Amino acid sequence: MANKIPTRIYLSEDEMPKSWYNLRADMKNKPDPMLHPGTLQPVTAEDLAPVFCKGVIEQELDETTRFVPIPEEIQDFYRAYRPSAVIRAYYLERMLDTPAEIYYKFEGTNTSGSHKLNSAGPQAFYAKKDGLTSLTTETGAGQWGTAMSMACAFYGLDLTVYMVKISSEQKPYRKTLMEAYGANLIPSPSNTTESGKKILEKDPNTGGSLGCAISEAIEKAVKTDKCRYVLGSVLNHVLLHQTIIGLEAKAALDKFNVKPDIIIGCAGGGSNLGGLIAPFMGDKIAGKSNARFIAVEPASCPSFTRGRYAYDFGDTAQTTPLIRMQTLGSGFMPSANHAGGLRYHGMNSTLSKLFHDGLLEARSEVQTDVFDAALKFMKVEGILPAPESSHAIKAAIDEALECKKTGEKKVILFGLSGTGFFDMTAYQSYNNKTMEDRVPSDAELEKGFATILDIPQNK
Amino acid sequence: MANKIPTRIYLSEDEMPKSWYNLRADMKNKPDPMLHPGTLQPVTAEDLAPVFCKGVIEQELDETTRFVPIPEEIQDFYRAYRPSAVIRAYYLERMLDTPAEIYYKFEGTNTSGSHKLNSAGPQAFYAKKDGLTSLTTETGAGQWGTAMSMACAFYGLDLTVYMVKISSEQKPYRKTLMEAYGANLIPSPSNTTESGKKILEKDPNTGGSLGCAISEAIEKAVKTDKCRYVLGSVLNHVLLHQTIIGLEAKAALDKFNVKPDIIIGCAGGGSNLGGLIAPFMGDKIAGKSNARFIAVEPASCPSFTRGRYAYDFGDTAQTTPLIRMQTLGSGFMPSANHAGGLRYHGMNSTLSKLFHDGLLEARSEVQTDVFDAALKFMKVEGILPAPESSHAIKAAIDEALECKKTGEKKVILFGLSGTGFFDMTAYQSYNNKTMEDRVPSDAELEKGFATILDIPQNK
Hints:
The structure is a homodimer. The first copy, chain A, is of the alpha/beta class. Helix content of chain A is 40%, strand content 16%. The first copy, chain A, has helices at residues 45-48, 54-61, 72-79, 90-96, 117-129, 143-155, 165-170, 172-180, 194-202, 210-222, 236-255, 271-285, 349-356, 367-381, 387-406, 424-431, 442-449; strands at residues 8-9, 19-21, 67-69, 86-88, 101-106, 134-139, 158-164, 184-188, 227-229, 262-266, 292-298, 308-313, 322-327, 361-365, 411-416. Chain A has a seven-stranded mixed sheet with strand order 1-4-5-15-10-11-14, with helices on both faces. In chain A, strands 8-7-6-9 form a four-stranded parallel sheet, with helices on both faces. In chain A, strands 2-3 form a two-stranded antiparallel sheet. In chain A, helix 4 (90-96) packs across helix 14, helix 5 packs parallel to helix 6 (143-155) and helix 11 packs across helix 12. The longest helix of chain A is centred in the middle third of the chain and has 20 residues, at 236-255. Chain A starts with 7 loop residues before the first strand and ends in a 10-residue tail after the last helix. The mean pLDDT of chain A is 95.
């Protein structure tokens, strides 16, 4: 007998969102503006023009348009792999024997293996629209790099990807996949940029970091004709694109009159979390919902739970505008032992503001607990989750078990942002019990905080 | 604007098939019966009882029941990852600039990465129903082993997987994944069985073969209490379970009154091809359709296009019943250089009969052509196809290009049986242009044919 609420809820193509939702337009307290690092004044479109495409600059700076129409060409791109399902976790509920209803929005069925494609497509489209011929970007775990490789193959653009060196060594298959899509892969730090050379001079054996790869990709873009830079998280236009996740999830759940009480997302730079929660948070701000929102981050890179709310650079070379955000300092280096993504020192400014204002909760988890949750999940739900996404699974299981204690029938929604097919070495180390949990000491955090600028705005 | 026929056609949970379809019931010329290798008489349920579960034996021998009800428990299992989408390949059509309509049924969204789970679930269920505590099986490329590991985790059964040694070395991540699901992996040939020891004595450095791993798994099952053996392809009960693919595809296409003119599947043992074509072939046999059916096999293991239609063993140690099928001989060893699955010496008896009677066409492809098609496909359709499935993509592209020449608007349906996330070394060798095509010489084939029994039925 079929379930009253089906295991997988799909929207029809007609029901797919035609606009993205700009949460900032509904926020009573807006996030603080990006500042020019020289003048400490809010950045202008002109300031950003050498680095980014016109389309995304407009979106980045727009705090007032509530619904931003999705161009037909991008809707066409989305239809190649969307809508994605909201899945009722009947099998997980049964295993946990919980009165809670658990749902997850699954973004892992495309080849990039994650939600990243939702912003890669639009960013490649806007580049094409500007008449560009190439793009640069960075990638850590490789999901974003793969997504951009796919999007550039789709729109016929050249792409150079600076891949964090240690990741490119640990994940040769990610490289193969990006190259199959025609991308040019460069392990970072490299000798192809000044910022890369500087870092290599200081430490020739460094494994690199996302902040450093960003510096190289920006430098390369600025110095190349008809080329711009694209970023896969942290910025507000990325979150805007990712609201397709939350909008689809909400529309799917609304069909069955399901209202989530708790909404959970993993958080690195915030793109998946921000995209998932946006429309639900809009309801909360409007007083139409009492939902709780939970960000789950790795204990090894705890920008929400142990970071500072301050203006900071987005990259190690300190070339980007300043963003007021939860940050560990642009000089913070997460432990190499940490599996998967979620290794960025900062957090999107909108999410940071929501956290600062008490609208968003956050917790951190060590990775063995996260993989333990992943294995529980995959055994009954039949999907191999990405380590990143498994942070959300961990929190969803904990909340469902809490419901078991209290007897409450809460409705939990979490984001399953991607699959773990390229993370098998991490699963291997978990199986073999060689996986270690590394949590930064207070002294290590202080070292990162010391790289935050001492400016009036940070007093 | 949404498409008139959506990119992805999903059935609702209510519309999912409640029965499998037994094509043999509608065949005017039935496949020849399995024979006991000692008596050369048709095998009985008793003959098979030491090896297989009761439920599958009944299905294997049943040539008359047209629709076999799917037990509610298996429907529950299917709902964990089904229905799967039929996808209109709008983007591929656009790239090829063909008047043809191309559709594919995509079975790769579950963690096993293929259609194999459709039979793994039922086989584990029947084992549980018989009160067994463990199962044994073999796996080559690893899709079937992963699927059985998932199914056994779901139903709480122990599983021992004999994995073709060369595959277990080339694909350590497959091992990791199966172990994460709790399976016990043994590279084959091994010292855990008599048949394994015999093969190792002859050739201690052998990379193994599927036929040899089957021998070991059967031996282990027969010698273990409350244990049976399960097989992922070749046999008719496996094809029966896989008809869920074709039934869903037909129901989805019927919604939009789409009638395929050409139906294409890759073929190794035949489970994916047989499952996809069954209901469409039933229509053809009933005179209700003029569709063409095309099996696509690797040139390195050409059981359809260069094999013999003869009674042969299913395994190297020659312990199984005799099956009349297209075969290269149970002693045939496919080139180690061949990527992915589709390396079995024989072909399902029903498909072999259809081929023999002219109802099913077959062609073979060399692997560099297959990977060339895979890359074309993944760049526009956004799915990383398994090397196996890419054989079908190759033929679909060729047929679509033929339509471009003739101007015909044919409707092409192919089976995209799985994803290639565990085949990145093969993609790497294709990228690096180190991939080679190996086609067996006539002399090599003769060596295989020499292992086919010289019995009256084979005259």
